[in-house]
Amino acid sequence: CVCVCVVRLCVCVVLFEICLTFRTLTRKATDKATPTKTPKKKGRPSTSGKRKANEDSSDDETESKKKPRGPTSAERKAKRAAMDEEGKLSSDDKALFAEAQQRALAAQPQVDYTAKKEIEFGKHVITTWYLAPYPEEYMRLSTIYLCEFCMKYMKSPQMLQRHMDKCEVRGHPPGSEIYRDGSLQVWEVDGKRAKVYCQNICLLAKLFLDHKTLYYDVEPFLFYVMTEYDEFGSHFVGYFSKEKRSIMGYNVSCILTMPFLQRKGYGKLLIEFSYLLSRLENKPGSPEKPLSSLGRVTYHSYWRDEILEYLFVNQRPDLTIHGLYVCAHVCVCV
Q1: Would you say residue 191 has pLDDT above 70?
Q2: How far is CA 84 from CA 87, 93, 97, 98, 104, in A?
Q3: 99, 92 in Cβ contact below 8 A?
Q4: How far apart are CA 241 and CA 178, in angstroms?
């Protein structure tokens, strides 16, 4: 065993010496292959660059001297005056131009922006009551064509038909269904998530509401849209909107029922639905003031029915307004 260990130790020493010799040989070979850098001699800087720069500047100066100088300001003014004299129109030419301008203005159709418009909404052609801030090119038209599912406005029936074939809101409004009774549905639509849809509803509402002032800033509001469903889709019936966080405690900011569906109880149903939401929130309900003329009539009719029903059910002498609020959650405001 001792002999074997000694032999192994000798072999290791021999291998180590071979590695060292091989390493020194490779270093010498790499040193010969790489060229040595000679240090630069310190001395005065060369002036060849400065001479070249001076020669280039002198060449530029000679070239600039050879180039012709541009016209002075006085020469430019004189040239402009001469061009103006040549381009002046005679009195006959001015008269012909004015006559042609008057003919063009007379031939142009006069647009009355204050005139009431007509809208084609589904199967109905409705004469509007007020003006809405649609784009100018639509205000020149006598009839505006609206999609009865998304309320998008168009200029011609051909455009409306092409849009109806691919309308994304045909199935239902872009919101959550929160009520259904047969074919009647109510959808909660967030103005921040469906901004264009809610803006189109506000523009449509302005055509029939005088006090409507909100058109484009719809993000702080929730829209509750009532639709009637059939085999063709969810048809718009009416809506009401409310602020997400109302400081005054209003449960309705704007309410509308389409004119061809009025006097059928849809308005009262929307009002009752707004008070039902107030009950769920445990807050008193009150519409935003001022009420429109039709809104005042509808709300007075609803309040009268609620008060009479409360008096009929609770026939006792200790009736109070607070009790009316506790039972019906109705906050009456004239």
Answers
A1: yes
A2: 5, 16, 19, 20, 28
A3: no
A4: 15
DSSP letter string over 207-237?
A: TT-SS---SS--TTEEEEEEEEEETTEEEEE
Instruction: Kindly report, residue by residue over 140-186, the tens digit of the pLDDT.
Output: 888 999 999 999 999 999 999 999 988 988 889 999 999 999 999 99
- Tell me which residues are annotated as active site: 288
Amino acid at 214: L
For residue 278, count other CB atoms closer than 10 A to its CB.
21
Kindly state the tokens that stand for 317: 């002498």
Q: Who contacts 296 (Cβ-Cβ below 8 Å, separation ≥6)?
A: none
Nearest Cα residue to 242 out of 257, 256, 223: 223
Asked if 204 contacts 129 with a C-beta cutoff of 8 angstroms, the reply is no
Counting Cα atoms < 13 Å in the Cβ hemisphere of 127 gives 2
Give the separation between CA 254 and CA 214, rounded to whole angstroms.
9
Rounded to an integer, what distance in angstroms lies between the CA atom of residue 190 and that of residue 80?
A: 63
Report which secondary-structure segment, H or E, holds 189.
strand 184-190
- In 3-state terms the chain splits into helix, strand, coil percentages (rounded to 5) of 45, 15, 35
Amino acid at site 155: K
- pTM, 2 dp: 0.64
Q: Is 272 strand, coil or helix? A: helix
Work out whether strand 153-154 and strand 143-146 pair parallel, antiparallel, or are unpaired: antiparallel
For residue 64, what are its two tokens? 């600039």
